[in-house]
Amino acid sequence: MKSWNSLMTLVLFVGICLAIGGFGAVFTSGPVCGWYPMIHKPSWNPPSWVFGPVWTFLYLMMGTAAWSPLFFGLNNPLAGLLDSLPLWAAILMTIIFFWRVSPVAGWLMVPYWLWVSFATALNFALWRKNL
Predict the structure, then answer these.
(1) Residues 10-67 pLDDT 10s
(2) Residues 77, 127: contact at Cβ < 8 Å?
(3) Lowest CB count within 10 Å: 1, 19, 39, 70, which one?
(4) Residue pair 82/110 in contact by the 8 Å Cβ criterion
(5) Cα 30–chain centre separation
(6) How far apart are CA 126 and CA 131, in angstroms?
(7) Can you say whether the dihedral through the CA atoms of 72, 76, 79, 82 is positive or negative?
(8) Could you tell me if 120 and 84 are in contact, meaning their C-beta atoms sit under 8 angstroms apart?
């Protein structure tokens, strides 16, 4: 039963990542056919057909590498914490770099960082209380 729940959780997370990627595709499908072929590209630009499979693969990997399989799947709060700390730092750095280009872009990342901050603090507390 536990392995079935773990599999269903994995399918859920992968599905969420693919759905988010699909949402992004709504904005790219038109320009990919109209605007993108007309712009000048560097010599190392891959053919258009490469992008779909690569992004699909990346979203599959993102869904599989989620925090939940470590914390819940392995019943290991320390592994979840060690996974969330670099994510927390990466989001903060992204906010800083985005902010330099566009303060709006930086602000758009703040709720994500706040949630990961809360989740990381909670993860830490759970780990400490269950040593």
Answers:
(1) 788 778 877 877 777 777 766 667 777 777 888 988 888 888 888 888 777 676 667 7
(2) yes
(3) 1
(4) no
(5) 24
(6) 9
(7) positive
(8) yes
Q: What one-letter code names the amino acid at 46?
A: P
Of 85 and 32, which is predicted with more confidence? 85
Q: What is the DSSP string of the chain?
A: -HHHHHHHHHHHHHHHHHHHHHHHHHHHHHHHHTTGGGS---TTPPPGGGHHHHHHHHHHHHHHT-HHIIIIITT-HHHHHHHHHHHHHHHHHHHHHHHHH-HHHHHHHHHHHHHHHHHHHHHHHHHHHT-
